[in-house]
C-alpha cells in the first residue's frame, strides 16, 4: 500500500484539471492506497458545502482524507458553518507530518 | 537524528501564493526541528536578491514606513536566522543558469550557487521531497 499526499492549490471553478486531480486521489484511495488531499490557497474554495457544481463529490465519498489549510480558509473568509463537514481544517504542520510520516510517501502538488 | 525535507520552488517574488505557502512550509519545518534543503530555480532565484527595496503606495497614500512592504529577501533572511536559532540546517541553492539568465546574482547572505545535481543528491538523501510547480 503506497502513501500519497496530494496538495491541491487551485480552485476547481478556475481550472478543469482540478477535477482530474480529485479523481486520481479517489481512484488511488479506491485501490487501497493511503491518500491525503490537502487543499490550500484557492484550492480551499472547494471546501464550501454550498458550492454549485463542485467536482469533489466522488473524492469526499472515497476513503481519502481531505484536509483544508486553516490559513487559506481565513484569507478567504470561509467560516466553519460554510465548510463541508467531510473536509477537516488543518495547518501546515499537519501537512508536514503527513509528508514526513513515512519515508517513500509520494507528494504531488497541483 | 533530524529529518530532512527538500523543497523545490520556481515562482518569482510577488506573483503567486505558492511563494507564501512555500515560505510557510519551510518556516514550519524548521520550527519542527527539520533540516531543509531549498532548490530555487527559474524565477525563484530572485527571492533572495539583495537589491529589493520597499516602496510607498501612492494608491493608499502611504509612505514606505506605513506600507511596511514585505520583501522576500527579508523573509528568507529570517528563515536563515530561525534555522540558526533552532540548530538545524537550511541549505538554499539558487540554480546558477537561472541566475545568470536573469542577472540576479547579488544575494543576501545564506544562499549558494548550484544546479540540478544538487537537487538530485538531495532527493536521494532526504526523507521527503516536495516540488512546488508554477502554473
Provide the descriptors you would attach to this structure in a database record.
heterodimer, A: 110 residues, alpha/beta, 5-stranded parallel β-sheet, 4 helices, globular, B: 135 residues
Task: Please tell me about this protein's structure.
The complex is a heterodimer of chains A (110) and B (135). Chain A has 110 residues and is of the alpha/beta class. Chain A is 31% helix and 23% strand. Chain A has four helices and five strands, in the order βαβαβαβαβ. The longest helix of chain A has 14 residues, at 17-30. The two termini of chain A are 22 Å apart. Chain B has 135 residues and is α/β, with parallel strands linked by helices. Chain B has helices at residues 17-31, 64-67, 72-86, 96-102, 116-125, and strands at 4-9, 35-40, 90-95, 112-114, 128-132. In chain B, α1 (17-31) links the parallel β1 and β2. In chain B, α1 packs parallel to α3. In chain B, 38% of the residues are buried. The mean pLDDT of chain B is 96. Chains A and B meet through α4 of A and α1 and β5 of B.
Oligomer type: heterodimer
Describe the main β-sheet of chain B briefly.
Answer: 5 strands, parallel
What's the total number of strands of chain A?
5
Q: Number of helix segments of chain B?
A: 5
**Biggest chain-to-chain interface with counts:** A-B, 20 and 19 residues
H and E order of chain A: EHEHEHEHE
> Class by helix and strand content of chain A?
alpha/beta
Structural class of chain B: alpha/beta
Q: Looking across the biggest beta sheet of chain B, what order are the strands in?
A: 4-3-2-1-5
Determine the N-to-C terminus distance of chain B. 36 Å
Instruction: Using the alpha-carbon principal axes, give the shape of chain A.
Output: globular
Low-confidence stretches of chain B: none
Gyration radius of chain B, to the nearest Å?
A: 15 Å
> Cα distance, first to last residue of chain A?
22 Å
> Given the structure, what is the number of helices of chain A?
4
Mean pLDDT of chain B: 96
Question: Which blocks of ≥5 consecutive residues of chain A have pLDDT under 50?
Answer: none
The percentage of residues in β strands of chain A lies in 15-25%
- Compressed to H and E, one letter per element, the order of chain B equals EHEHHEHEHE
Shape of chain B: globular
Largest sheet of chain A: 5 strands, parallel
Amino acid at each position: 500500500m503506497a502513501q500519497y499526499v496530494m496538495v491541491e492549490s487551485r480552485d476547481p471553478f478556475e481550472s478543469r484539471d482540478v477535477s482530474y486531480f480529485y479523481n486520481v486521489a479517489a481512484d488511488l484511495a479506491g485501490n487501497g492506497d493511503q491518500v491525503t488531499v490537502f487543499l490550500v490557497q484557492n484550492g480551499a474554495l472547494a471546501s464550501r458545502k454550498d458550492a454549485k457544481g463542485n467536482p469533489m463529490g466522488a473524492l469526499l465519498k472515497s476513503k481519502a482524507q481531505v484536509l483544508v489549510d486553516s490559513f487559506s480558509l481565513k484569507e478567504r473568509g470561509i467560516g466553519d458553518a460554510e465548510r463541508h463537514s467531510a473536509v477537516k481544517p488543518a495547518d501546515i504542520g499537519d501537512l508536514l507530518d503527513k509528508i514526513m510520516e513515512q519515508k517513500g510517501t509520494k507528494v504531488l502538488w497541483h | 537524528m533530524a529529518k530532512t525535507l527538500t523543497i523545490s520552488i520556481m515562482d518569482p517574488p510577488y506573483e503567486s501564493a505558492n511563494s507564501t505557502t512555500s515560505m510557510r512550509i519551510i518556516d514550519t519545518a524548521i520550527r519542527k526541528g527539520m533540516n531543509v534543503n531549498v532548490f530555487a530555480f527559474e524565477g525563484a532565484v530572485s527571492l533572495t536578491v539583495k537589491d529589493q527595496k520597499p516602496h510607498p503606495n501612492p494608491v493608499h497614500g502611504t509612505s514606505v514606513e506605513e506600507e511596511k512592504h514585505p520583501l522576500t529577501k527579508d523573509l528568507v533572511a529570517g528563515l536563515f536566522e530561525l534555522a540558526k536559532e533552532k540548530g538545524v540546517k537550511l541549505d538554499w541553492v539558487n540554480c546558477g543558469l537561472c541566475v545568470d539568465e536573469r542577472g540576479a546574482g547579488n544575494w543576501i547572505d545564506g544562499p549558494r550557487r548550484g544546479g540540478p545535481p544538487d537537487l538530485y543528491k538531495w532527493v536521494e538523501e532526504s526523507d521527503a521531497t516536495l516540488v512546488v510547480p508554477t502554473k
